[in-house]
Amino acid sequence: MTYPEIKLRRGKSDSVKRFHPWIFSGAIQSLPDNLKEGDLVSVTDENGDFLAVGFYQIGSIAVRILSFQNEEINTVFWKRKLEAALDVRRKLQLAENAQNTTYRLVHGEGDTLPGLIIDIYNDTAVMQAHAVGMHYAREIIADVLIDIYGGELKNVYYKSEGTLPYKAALNPQDGFIRGGTDVNVAIEYGLKFHIDWTKGQKTGFFIDQRENRLLLEKMAKDRKVLNMFCYTGGFSVYALRGGAQLVHSVDSSAKAIDLTRENVELNFPETDKHEAFAEDAFRYLEKMAGEYDLIILDPPAFAKHKDALRNAIKGYTRLNETAIRKIKKGGIIFTFSCSQAVNKDQFRLAVFTAAARTGRNVRILHQLHQPADHPINIYHPEGEYLKGLVIQVE
Ligand code: SAH
């Protein structure tokens, strides 16, 4: 199969040969005149020898690679890729499990499909394109999705209004492209969550904290829990199941507080142990007394880009310092960063700085990360974005 050819400069093929899934615009020697954004292209080295097939896009990442084999990107290709992704989730016991109906099926580069996210909520898939080529491929992907689930998946909601480059002027409309449903309560490890894929952040739910919530549940018994940046209240619901004495959820968004209350009500309609507050996290932490002995800090990405790094690290330091200073003796903090631009060591250094400023004795009990349905392509270490520490404060 031959697609229009993009030729790389001399010495620029090495990262492709090491299976890195992106080609930066600076590596390109020549490209066809009539190439359009989102077109499939063949990438060759300076001698014209084949390297990869991918989607072309205008911008610093010029090609997102779909295959390192010279093959046609057709139904057979999509079926092979999506079946491979589903097979992994089955083996992880996340798919085809009545106690768990929500998981990430496709995690972009981690599933060697750069620019594509697919999250599953019961019999609905929420698909998000981050690359123009994926937008054009959405119909074939939707058909293959329905096909590989053999009747178990009925609806495909396409949600790319906020994720495609707006200069591409594609004007994607969020909405169902297959089926349609109002049933939006999904189950995560036996707990129910109302998923708002229409208005919610990302695809409606932060699936990536599932395993960390489960760990929190084990540590919550009889504790007084503060779930900071609660969004849909995921950690709060697990803490209640774990036997927490009380759980307070905080988020600056009133909508998030409504979602949290709704999810607590779905699982524990009788509980009087939960309260939720729409407030700024920093303000809440400053004014709170030292009543909590388990605190979760799961803020939004403080650094979306490398240039915001310094401020982001300051933000993490300040946040953790206040929590470490105020938590009860023997208390536990689950602290996270989901900024791709902040690496594991930088985050740990921020927490170290925070601890040192308080003068309290702090131990790391667990080092946390994103779960297996958000895999990291080893040739694309940039895909490691979620990191966390569970620390105990004496
Ligand atoms: N822990 C959540 C995900 C958190 S997402 C989960 O497990 O699903 C980050 C949340 O932080 C968002 O809901 C956002 O509304 C909230 N947020 C952002 N800035 C904030 C601030 N300054 N104070 C409190 N909440 C904030």
From TrEMBL:
GO terms for molecular function: methyltransferase activity; RNA binding. Keywords: Cytoplasm, Methyltransferase, RNA-binding, rRNA processing, S-adenosyl-L-methionine, Transferase. The keyword Signal does not apply. Transmembrane segments: none annotated. One of its GO terms (biological process) is methylation. It is found in: Cytoplasm. This is Class I SAM-dependent rRNA methyltransferase. It comes from Pseudoprevotella muciniphila.
